[in-house]
Amino acid sequence: MRRALAELREMGKELRGRSVASLLEVLGDVLEAFRSPDAPARKQLEAELPEATGFAPATLREGLDAALAHWTRGALRRLVEDELGPELGVGCRRRATGFPVTATLLAGALPTPTLLALLAPLALRSPVLAKCSVHDPCTARIFAQTLSERDASLGRALRVLDLRREDEAAVAALLEADCVVASGSDETLARVAAHVTPPRRLVGYGHRLSVAVLGPAALSGPPLQAAARALARDVALWDQLGCLSPVALFVLCGSDALPPQVATELAAALAEAERRWPRGRVPPRAAAAIAQERVSAEVRAAAGQRVSLHSGAAWSLVVEADCQLRPAPLHRFLRIHPLRDPAALEAALRPMERHLACVGLAGIEAGGGGADLPARLAGLGAARICPLGRMQAPPLAWCHDGRGVLLPLARLTDMEAGV
Question: Which overall architecture, per CATH, does domain 2-207 show?
Answer without folding.
Answer: 3-Layer(aba) Sandwich (3.40)
